[in-house]
Amino acid sequence: MFPLKQRKIGGYKFAQRTWYSSRHLGVDYVASKGTPLYAPFDGEILKRFYGFEGGNTIWFKPNGQNVIIRFLHLSSFNASGKVKSGQVIGYTGNSGSLTKGAHLHLDISKGAVNIWNFANFLDPDKFDWKDIAPVPASNNAPSVPPASSKIEQWALAIKKHEGFIAPCAQYPKGSRAYRNNNPGNLRYTSYSASLGLIKGKDDKNFVIYQTYDIGFNALKKFLTDAANGKLISYKPDMTLYQFYSKYAPSTDGNYPKGYAESVAWVMGVSPNTKIKDLL
Ligand SMILES: [Zn+2]
């Protein structure tokens, strides 16, 4: 499983130039101070220590995989030795000299860790975290057929990014998108409420659709309308980058660039793709 509840790039990506090196060895993920860090697999904490640059650091080795996953800048540790997948092994933070704000730096070495050999690192965003597809409750089973159109692929990529997660240890009631049958986490407006049968809105003003299928269709209709130029805020010539600066604006604490890139990557298109070309 991915070691954080929320999987959102919030800093340097893999191989990107940073203020302190020519190529970033891993990926920086959004994580406010004190966010639980989960063991991604059954495995072993090989080391945990304070490093000048990385701050509180964990070296984790999954059972049966010849990789070492490093977690940096933690605020505290919560386990040592052998651990089970999903166990809280620490809490994220902002420790060490190579960080300017709370986040999780995660990198993956093939075999031994050698920070001077970039070729020995894997891209954590392409790594198989073996996330198990959420098992839906029977009453609103999101049976996801293979994507049949680009709009559907796009909606599925959004669903993945927003985190549509059925009840589990980490989310006893399921994620917000799951609870609301709203895989795109659409805000409540007269428009979004018109896209399908709704139950109402939640405490953060997100629509609650009556069933998953209604919510997923609402998301597809919204994307189709946006790409067709039927909505004021979106133009068919917008790129995915431009689309996400409206859909997930940074003024709401989002990271639209990362969102656009993650969706584009899932869909296998460039983030500079025009949204009209996704119809
Ligand atoms: Zn980093």
Give an account of the 3D structure.
The model is unreliable at 133-145 (pLDDT under 50). α1 (150-162) crosses α4 and α1 crosses α6. The protein has 2 domains: 26-122, Glucose Permease (Domain IIA) (Distorted Sandwich), CATH 2.70.70; 138-278, no CATH class. It is of the alpha+beta class. The longest helix has 16 residues, at 212-227. It has helices at residues 150-162, 176-179, 190-193, 212-227, 240-247, 256-267; strands spanning 26-29, 36-38, 43-51, 55-62, 67-74, 76-77, 81-83, 88-91, 104-110, 121-122, 198-201, 207-209. The chain has 6 helices and 12 strands. Helix content is 20%, strand content 20%. Strands 1, 3, 4, 5, 7, 9 and 10 form a 7-stranded antiparallel beta sheet that branches. The structure holds zinc ion. Zinc ion binds at residues 12, 24, 26, 28, 105. Zinc ion binds next to β1.
